[in-house]
Predict the 3D structure of the following.
Amino acid sequence: VEIAIGDTRGNRIVLLHATWMAFIEKRSDIQQLVRSSTPSPLMIQDFVIELVKIRDVDNVKLSLCDKCVYMKPSTILFMLELDTMCRAHIF
């Protein structure tokens, strides 16, 4: 199983299921990262999550190997929330 994460420009990265699960397990670290005024990049295997400024606006940069995707912090938080909601309906 692979998880594809993309943006509105057609860029996408594909995460292995194990990487996605590690991403979900680091939920609190990711939430801290997107809310921090002095964030440090977060690494999960080869997957890097960092907060960057583009035109003075905070964006989350997701990088894997030679590809990256930029998202709003609210989108990342929604992805984490969506995973929780999906799991609640599975069990």
